[in-house]
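Let's do one together. I've listed all components of the complex below, 395 residues spread over two lines.
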Amino acid sequence: MDAFVPHGSKLGTGFSKAEKLAGQAIHPQHNASKGQSRANWISDLVALRKVVILCSYCRAKFNPRQAGYRRVYIPDYTGKTDGYTVNGDCDSCRVFTPNAGGGCAFQPEELYEATHIDPTVARRQARARAGLKSTWSAIKS
Amino acid sequence: MSQEAGHLSGGAAIYMRYPVRASIATAGIGVRAVTDAIGVAPVTTTAAEDVVGLGIDVSTYTSTQATLLADTANPSGSYSGLDMGRMVTVSVRPDLILRALLCNGATEGTALQALVNTSASAGGTVVSDTDASANDMTGGTLWCISGANVGHARQIASDVASTSVTVTVPFPRTIAVGDTFLEVPYSGFGTGAADIDGSNFMQFTTLLTQADASIGGGTGQEVQVFRLELNGASDSKVLYMHRQHQWNRHTVPS
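Okay, and this is what the predicted structure of the assembly comes out as:
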């Protein structure tokens, strides 16, 4: 663990498991001064079929359909978010997304169903459980 | 696979990336860091202490430099950022609610065993069938999918292996011969003590993608069952949270 000294901890106090884990977190590692571009970082993620996290400013620069990606949806019972908000380090500008208008995540289409709920399916199932007709059924009847 | 079904406190998910120290072959399985070794690894079917969260993508572990270099699509061939080896994206909030399909056994995709009642119960408390689980399902949940009680569920008070299942709070109507029920060892209620432990433990299938509902109640890894989505034998789900999350400080930090 010598290589991973968490920020903000005092020497000699030791580190908790959580602090050690925080010290291992990988942040976007492109650095313009070293000749690394943010486009390369994101294209690497896409090539490896990794999740891409973007802030509200950088989100428009990424075309998920072109890359075979889909925006992540997680139900929010409290209504604090619309369900499409995911925070983390922006893979483009490296800012922690809560400080940049909130973030969102894009996941490869082939992995989406394994980890996330399709909001359309969720809505249809919820309506079925509640005994409600679908919009289309209501129009037809 | 476990799906992200929301957060108990609401709000947005937080995704972080960690290096892996073992291959993570499937998206949607828990990952954990149990030792001082660098990196995270998948949970096991029965152990999820110090879980870090839900792995959102996949990663094959390697310590071969040439293989890591070949990962990058960068035409210049530069080592463009993956300086800590291969990594996985993890949804890290400790209050993450996960949703997993219920499966009858360690093999993925096995439908739950239907219990077809063989002896009428006028009081609505006993379901008899030799297909009843041989394992202890006390503290779990029994629900009706065919018969006069369809749509009703009750917590299992006791059971006799391969013979019958008994509930304390009766079903509203007589349980007739031929009525069909399903049972699982999970429940939204309980303290973890014997016979009321259906809410506190869960076991995964071999590939870690579904919940093994054939096990006895109170066995498996420590979770908190949040809710059950009781449907049919092939499409019922359990919603749960990890109790021993790394950032929950459930265990003594070390």
